[in-house]
Amino acid sequence: MQEKLQKKAEKRERINQLIKQEEEGALIFQKQSTTGIKFNTDGWGLFLEKGKYKTITKTSLYWLEFGERSHPKEEKVPSLSTSQGFVVFSSYVYGKQNNFFYLKMGLGQQKLIGGKGNKNGVAVSAIYGGGISAGLLKPYYLDVQTPNSRGVTQQIKYNNNDSIFLDPNLIVGHSSFFKGINEIQFVPGAYAKTALRFDYGRYNEAISAIEVGVNAEYYSKKMPILLLNDPKSFFFNAYISIVFGKRK
Predict the structure, then answer these.
(1) Residue range of the domain that includes 120
(2) From CA 8, how far away is CA 25, in angstroms rounded?
(3) 57, 78, 85, 122 — which has fewest CB within 10 A?
(4) Spatial distance between the Cα atoms of 60 and 81, rounded to a whole number of angstroms
(5) Could you tell me if 100 and 223 are in contact, meaning their C-beta atoms sit under 8 angstroms apart?
(6) Which CATH number is 165's domain given?
(7) How far apart are CA 49 and CA 74, in angstroms?
(8) What is this structure's pTM?
(9) Spatial distance between the Cα atoms of 45 and 43, rounded to a whole number of angstroms
């Protein structure tokens, strides 16, 4: 018990010293490295981030992010079939033409706007920046059984005026994720984002933060995701991220 109290007192004293150094104008950390997961209004993302402290209030950031965008009208449809005498439960997204993945690289700034000298270590920062985005369209394949297939499952993707692809009576489920991966189309684009980050470990080597922001992307051509809906080249979404990492 006494040892725990001593460790807490040492930690408190260390934080007080860091606060004092910062108030005197010292740069108490040199760089940071973080990773995290993003929950977008139209999908998800995983990212890596590197930061280099320029001043007490300003940090240069570099990003690498991978994720997937979905159409807001996507809906999973359950399906039921039999295979070798067994009942198989599956699901698929009706009318989905392509999976839309992205790989983004960019740079920006993190600027401290609140929390200076706050002894609980919580800091609020503004983050802004942008960069290039590689849009990756992978054909979405379905497992289907037609009256002429004699119970044999076929894997098909959408072709113009393909009535089989849109007939729910013939669809067994979605094919393996890896089906069509050799057919990925690359579409170049650009993006920009702005956000607020709430850092709950400001005076620790460990970073623990929540980030809330908006993101805008534009691609060189329209991205067909869901049939019966007009494809678009501009995407705008809001997101919340869980961020963790370390400072040095």
Answers:
(1) 2-247
(2) 26
(3) 85
(4) 54
(5) yes
(6) 2.40.160.20
(7) 30
(8) 0.84
(9) 7
Dihedral sign from CA coordinates of 234, 240, 244, 248: positive
Q: What is the pLDDT of residue 80?
A: 65
In a 10 Å sphere around its CB, with 0-12 CB exposed, 13-18 middle and 19+ buried, how is residue 25 labelled? exposed
| Positive or negative torsion for Cα 197, 218, 222, 101 | negative
Structure-token pair, residue 167: 């007939």
Count CB neighbours of 213 within 10 A: 18
Q: Token match 């999976």: residue?
A: 99
Is the C-alpha dihedral spanning 60, 65, 71, 75 positive or negative?
negative
> What is the number of domains present in the chain?
1
pLDDT tens digit string along 38-61? 999 999 999 999 999 998 889 999
Q: Is 68 exposed, middle or buried (0-12, 13-18, 19+ CB in 10 A)?
A: middle
Placement of tokens 């449809």 in the chain: 77
Sort 49 into a burial class: Cβ within 10 Å, 0-12 / 13-18 / 19+.
Answer: buried
